[in-house]
Amino acid sequence: MKYKILIIFFSFIFFSCSSTSVRIGEIKIKGSNTMLHLVQQLAEEYRKERPGIFISVEGGGTGLGIKALIENEVDISNASRNLGPEEIKLIADKFGSVGISTFIARDGIGIFVNKNNPLNDLSVSDLKKIYLGEIKNWNELGGMNQNILPVARNDVSGTAAHFRTRILDDLNFAKSVIIESRVEEILTLIEENENAIGFSGLGYKSNCKLISIDGIYPTEENIKNMNYPLNRYLHFFTINSPTGIIKDFIDWVLGPKGQKIIKEFGFVSLYDFSY
Predict the structure, then answer these.
(1) Do residues 184 and 92 touch, judged by C-beta distance below 8 A?
(2) Has residue 152 got a pLDDT over 50?
(3) Predicted structure pTM score
């Protein structure tokens, strides 16, 4: 009886250890809401091949992700814009580095309107005047006689920063612009309001209408050849050149499986592994 108990005990330990992966490493990632669901999926698929690696992924916005990186709270900041001069200075002062950027994908910032809006195209000048409050009614652009309801992301958003730089020449949004913290909130508002307009990365699905800018639609080809006015890279920022499991994860993302997931999410992959 004594031996049976010992056999059962050791069998329990063996099967418990076999069925639960032992954590051999951890990667902490935080940043861009545009990239949140994408990076969560990348992490999940990566862990299937390396079950001992635990990866936590948080959103909040590019600005908060970079802040967490500078404060040593995360290993990777996923970002939808470049580092700003002040951020580079903070990293340099604290770590003696200017930070390392790894491109993982290309993206276009899409301009979305309600599906009942008759307009299919706006110019860069039109967008600038809308978000500076200089054009306030759709009939000024050949549309319906309704006041325009522009929506934008908040200050920590890399997407909002990129939009302001490329469209508004770094000017601030008009006070009439509704500010939301999450992409989903913007797209829902546009879906429910015929007179609304907003912008986001292309990786989010909605019932909104995606329109062109200056006659250029954000197709994969137009983003790749940089014809689309609001094209950009998506980044992984690290303090220094990545090593160990962090490098392994980034290399996997840049490999065939990672780039395939990026394409499936509606972003533009950097490399074509179809051959």
Answers:
(1) no
(2) yes
(3) 0.84
